[in-house]
């Protein structure tokens, strides 16, 4: 139980966490990953190396401490954490591991003088309350997945029915359940969790579903990352007929129902969730302004698919921006995306719903440009192909 004294102590430690939150969580991850091999497969080592994951968790803990008296203010953050946790199958039994490592890290980083027994006890109680909140919210998503038509709980075996090369860097994998049953119809923009064992090491990754729901199979489209463990393995070793373990589709970067025109602005492999969103928006009779940025034609995936859709749906306007065009490439603009492009290609920005996704520098730029041309912030949505980070500054 969280007492008024606990609350007061937690609130008093906010400035402390603000100045030292990252050091704390970095230390926390070090303890957890070295001493608890059972949770290691859930965490992506590359995200630890970049510092983004520790920053994301620090932000989560800080927001919580700040809002301990009005947890409803955490609404969107809790939803985002829940989706991420569910996609990687964070389970109730994992919470005590994180809790004990977090408290130990608080003690070791702050020192016994600051992190007194009373401080540790208050944070223990606060963590317990937050853990209960997340465990409850996550269980309702797991239960929803299990009860839905074609749904399931935990991992389900899928066979690679087809591999399709989409560009020099991106290959699609068409996945159908080995049990032959139907699959949960995902909302456009959702992603699955993939569990693999590579060289004896278990790994989990998220991949957006790059085709509209059909109730029968899924398609993921994977960019081969230089030095990437899972993407390298999928590209090099996974053949048609192989079996992969999937966790059910989830996510909150989904097409919101409305009659407004939609702007979809993507770069590189960030195109994947935009494809089912585009199909859904067009099927709903909405105008779609699709802007895609790529280095050049060789790495521009799904151009033919989008062109075919444009033939069927005159309401689809598409624009391609190449930063390093090759001879013969056909683009609507060269270089990086600019304000001028949005002004030219997005009529009535104030009336749009905008969705964007791509590498972080691209996302920072697009977020700023959308604000400049007058797309309302509350109708601008984005997602990260990694831990959530700030796009400002
Ligand atoms: C919601 C969501 C949806 C996604 N959808 C897609 C999608 O549709 N298509 C897609 O291709 N990807 C998608 N991703 C990204 C995907 O989950 C993987 O992150 C991506 O495939 C890279 O994984 P990997 O194992 O190949 O690379 P990793 O092994 O994770 O490495 C990534 C990069 O970090 C470097 N690195 C690795 N370890 C270290 C280290 N210890 N120190 C320093 N650098 C290191 C690697 O060289 C590489 O450049 C999505 C991610 C999320 C969160
Ligand atoms: C109260 C407890 C917890 C809080 C406040 C918390 C908070 C967060 C936050 C803020 C993120 C980032 C979300 C994003 O990037 O969108 C995250 C991601 C994650 N969390 Fe938690 N979490 C908690 C417990 C746990 C537990 C118990 C586990 C399992 C051991 C866990 C595993 C993960 C994983 C695997 C990710 C994704 C990491 C990545 O992208 O590399 N979390 N969590």
UniProtKB/TrEMBL annotation:
FAD binds at residues 191, 205-208, 384-387. Its cofactor is heme b; FAD. Its EC number is 1.14.12.17. The gene is hmp. PANTHER family: FLAVOHEMOPROTEIN. Keywords: Detoxification, FAD, Flavoprotein, Heme, Iron, Metal-binding, NAD, NADP, Oxidoreductase, Oxygen transport, Transport. This is Flavohemoprotein. PROSITE patterns: FAD_FR, GLOBIN. Is involved in NO detoxification in an aerobic process, termed nitric oxide dioxygenase (NOD) reaction that utilizes O(2) and NAD(P)H to convert NO to nitrate, which protects the bacterium from various noxious nitrogen compounds. Therefore, plays a central role in the inducible response to nitrosative stress. It comes from Methyloversatilis universalis (strain ATCC BAA-1314 / DSM 25237 / JCM 13912 / CCUG 52030 / FAM5).
